[in-house]
Amino acid sequence: MDQTIHDHLDLATMGYKQAFSRKFNQWSMLALAFNILGTWATLAYDLGSGLANGGPVCILWGLCSVTLCNICVAISLGELCSSMPTTLGQAYWIFRLWEHPVGRFVSYICAWINTFGWWAATASQAAFMTNFMFSIKSMINPRWQGASGWLLFVVYLGITLLFTIVNAIACRKDGILPWFNNIVAVQFGILFVAFTLAILISVGIRPNLRYQTAPFVFGQWLNLTGWPDGIVWFIGLREAAYSLSAFDCVIHMAEEIPAPRTNIPRVLYLVVIIGALTGFLFMIACLFSIQDLYGILQSPTGLPFTELATTTVGLNGAVALMILFEINGLGQGVSVMTATSRLTWGFCRDGGLPWGDYLTHIDSYWNSPLRVLCADTLVISLIGLLYLFSKTALQAVVSASTIALTVSYGLPILTLVLVGRDKLPSRRFDLGRWGYLVNWISVVYCCIITVFFFFPETPNPSSNEMNYAIAAFGIMLVVSVVLWFIQGKRFYLKEDRMMQETIRAENLLPATQHIRSDQIRFYLETDRTRLAASRLLALWSMDPMRQL
After folding, report:
1. Residue 36, φ and ψ in degrees, nearest 5
2. pLDDT band at 497 (very low <50, low <70, confident <90, very high)
3. How far apart are the C-alpha atoms of 56 and 216, rounded to whole Å?
4. Distance (Å, rounded) from C-alpha 79 to C-alpha 266?
5. pLDDT class for 547, splitting at 50, 70, 90?
6. Which residues, at least 6 apart from 147, have a Cβ–Cβ distance to it below 8 Å?
7. How many of the other CB atoms lie within 10 Å of CB of 462?
8. What CATH code is assigned to 3-493?
9. Are 156 and 130 within 8 A, CB to CB?
10. Whether pLDDT at 512 is above 70
11. Of 12, 2, 108, nearest to 523 (Cα)?
């Protein structure tokens, strides 16, 4: 069977029609995921937190621990996606596995948590780029007092609009968006090599610099927080967890890649491995190149990584590298906005958000969900308004992004192990006898990381040092519950809405004249929406032009 027809029928059996072209292949999807994770860059940006919370031990060996757990999470989600590849992802799986009104409610809350996580992740990237831009200014002019809140917001808004405009233009032709992601990923890889070699070579050739010892790099424990060492270890894992989050981006792109049942699971675990490997190597280079540990932690730019680059490469070289870093980061932000818009679009399509029918419109000229892109831009811009009031409040929303994404990973996996793995539809990627072990490791990891992401940096924080992520996350939960009674309870994932899409699958019949009846029956056995598949089989049987 032609893969295009196969993929169309796959969606039809789940109650959906094909809306996007399947323009990505496995490698361009891997490039998009690599851009979004940005592991080595995220670790560099958060270097100060890592040094204070466990030091090199937690940075390196904590990353190894988090990587192993995230591989379990990735292949658990990959198995679920292999059985039910749809844009809504985690929330849809809960709905199908837990066939109960409570399951539908939990699915709705999961969809809100996941969508909020991606809104916050996009805001995080825009804020990251804004702060980094002004850090470069501080490197050039150490006497500069820093930007005011309104200037930070204006730059943040401009960056957010850039993400949106590039996304809209890149969808005009099918090849542009995958090509763009490939280019950004290649540049990101080259930048990784350039940064690593520049730092290491500079320390090696400059007479006034020296490498740190191996015992420091691989075995030095630092606790500058006031928390007991045991708690610091888990708090220190947050840096690694943040750098390896958001790999579910490929799940929300499942309707834009051929053969998602096979390709999505493969991309999920590959991107975690690649991200962790580049992050581990880059952190080794950084730790060996540290000259003044406490000087780095007290960097005048507020970013220890910029101080590390300045003390090793020199001011001019460091500024040049940071400018390249900024440019590439803007490209990465475009990839983040792409994934965010697809998840929002899927949530609207399933009746979860207000004005969903209006927002799901795909512009025929631009071939992109322009209305969803504009709605996402509005939400992310409103998050940026926090710059005008408090950086602490903005940081709370940014921190809540990783919490929300982690919870959205844990919920469908927990649902699967509670209802029983035998309820999982047939899939191409199957964990087999290792399924329960891998699933439970994933659930325990998600619970631990979620709890410690709510911890403040110090045991007795002032109001400015508090971790307000729990407040941001709590407000989001309250909003989602209220909207459930206003909107979701009546419209979210209603079977009649999904059947309407299945009936429209009648349009597929001219393209399926050569399909044998047993090939269509395959969908009856591989998806829980048997009513939808039965409808397709009936339509096929009524077609007098069928060819056996």
Report:
1. -70, -45
2. low
3. 7
4. 10
5. very low
6. 134, 137, 155
7. 8
8. 1.20.1740.10
9. yes
10. no
11. 12
